[in-house]
Amino acid sequence: ADEAIPATARETGGAKLTMDGVKVLWEWNADFSRFVRSQDDKPHVDTDDVRVNAANVVVLFVQYSKSGYSPVAKTKGSGEAWVFTAGKLFQGTWERDDAAKPFTLKDTAGNVIALTPGNTWVELVRVGKAISFLPGTDPTSFKYP
């Protein structure tokens, strides 16, 4: 299966994101073959006390506009994208011209990025508010962006 992974992908340990004061950590769990999520330095668990996890984590770098209640992500147009799947990171772009349609995700070579079967978690992050790290790196050894 690894031979099907394009050269534009690289091994990853995960990513740290800051989302308007909320600290998010996604870490690759090779034993589980999934990314697991922490929030504000604690494991993020669901109502059944199961750790939130995903086969794919898609980080879309977007602009936000102000609204009366909370910021609104601008998800029409295009921007930078990071796609975490199968322990790999693809850096590339996202695009869509209709908010009711799915995103198109492409790697730096312009190829559509295939996701691993299973659930996908999408993070809408402000530009500059995410960093990825290599496998074996202790994510507590560096700050959130």
Written description of the protein model:
This protein has 145 residues and is an all-beta fold. The protein has one domain: 3-Layer(bba) Sandwich (YerB-like fold), CATH 3.50.90. Helices cover 0% and strands 50% of the residues. A hairpin with a 2-residue loop joins β9 and β10. The termini are far apart. The model has no long low-confidence stretch (mean pLDDT 93).
Describe what is shown at a glance.
The chain is an all-beta fold. The chain has strands at residues 9-11, 14-19, 22-29, 34-39, 42-43, 53-54, 56-65, 72-74, 77-85, 88-96, 104-107, 120-126, 130-133. The chain has one domain (8-141): YerB-like (YerB-like fold), CATH 3.50.90.10.
List the helices and strands and how they pair.
Blueprint: E1 9-11, E2 14-19, E3 22-29, E4 34-39, E5 42-43, E6 53-54, E7 56-65, E8 72-74, E9 77-85, E10 88-96, E11 104-107, E12 120-126, E13 130-133
Parallel strand pairs: 7-12
Antiparallel strand pairs: 1-10, 2-3, 2-13, 3-4, 4-5, 4-6, 7-8, 7-9, 9-10, 10-11
Characterize the largest beta sheet: strand count, sense, and whether it forms a barrel: 7 strands, mixed
Q: How many structural domains does the protein architecture include? A: 1
Q: Which CATH class is shown?
A: Alpha Beta
CATH superfamily: YerB-like
Rg result:
15 Å
Keywords summarizing the entry:
13 strands; YerB-like fold; 7-stranded mixed beta sheet; mainly beta; globular; 6-stranded antiparallel beta sheet; about 50% strand; about 140 residues
